[in-house]
Design goal:
Layout lengths: L1 H5 L4 H14 L3 H13 L3 H9 L3 H4 L3 H13 L3 H14 L3 H24 L1
Length: 120
């Protein structure tokens, strides 16, 4: 509702909503969404901790987990690791448009990584 009025999402409100959902219905989708909400609220350290705490057997083939984890790692400046997780996400992506988008993200991150490598 707030976004419709102000044009701005209320990231902290979404984070609280996902915390409540996780307490009552801790499905892998809710838990990954919770981590994404933490990232959007400006807390990538909480987001990565939440993702890393998930049962690997529930996430190994869950594409949204890998995309979210890649974005969290990128926000932490861990571009190499983010690229690895993004590759996993691409491999799990069936939709051609989504795959094309992920390839674009991968290209941007590779350019960023190459730029960081040249500066050091």
């Amino acid at each position: 509702m707030e976004r419709a009025i102000t044009g701005q999402p209320r990231h902290e409100a979404l984070r609280v909503l996902y915390d409540l959902l996780a307490a009552h219905a801790p499905t892998v989708g809710v838990l990954v969404g919770r981590a994404a909400a933490a990232l959007d609220a400006g807390d990538p350290h909480a987001a990565i901790a939440q993702l890393d705490a998930l049962d690997q057997s529930a996430t190994v083939r869950y594409q949204p987990f890998w995309v979210t984890r890649a974005n969290v790692l990128a926000s932490l400046g861990r571009i190499g690791e983010a690229l690895n997780d993004l590759e996993t996400a691409v491999g799990l992506t069936e939709d051609a448009a989504v795959r094309a988008h992920l390839f674009g993200v991968r290209s941007q991150w590779k350019q960023q990584l190459d730029g960081d490598t040249r500066q050091t």
